[in-house]
Amino acid sequence: MEKVIIAEKLKLFSEHWSPKIVGELNGQHIKLAKLQGEFVWHTHDHEDEMFLVLEGVLKIEFRDKTIVLNKNEFLIVPKGIEHRPFAENEVSLMLFEPISTLNTGNTESELTKHTLDRI
Fold it and tell me: Are 38 and 84 in contact (CB under 8 A)?
């Protein structure tokens, strides 16, 4: 059992779209990530995703709308819903996802991370 200091963990990396595992909870990975620019359209067929914005403004685009998340706001994207995160400026966020979750879901791209670092 160790306390996790989020600000210190965020200082350990600078790359965008490369989530880092900072904990596990009941079959879920707790991840930190930094985002900037647009991600790929994708769907998670078997997993819900929770995006919690720590710093910045994150837009999550859906085919019929866009939801804007500010600092200390979160959104749960239900499984099977196509979405694309987008950040005009750098965003730091925490993700809660089942361990099986691939960051790009059903879409393989240069942003797909099959193995995540633990920090």
Answer: yes
CA dihedral 92, 69, 76, 93 (to 10 degrees): 0
- Model pTM? 0.87
pLDDT in tens, 58-101: 999 999 999 999 999 999 999 999 999 999 999 999 998 888 77
Contacts of 106 (CB under 8 A, 6+ apart): 42, 43, 44, 45
DSSP state of 7: H
Phi, psi of 95 (to 5 degrees): -115, 140
Q: Give the position of tokens 């059992």.
A: 1
The domain total for the chain is 1
Q: Which domain holds residue 24?
A: 6-98
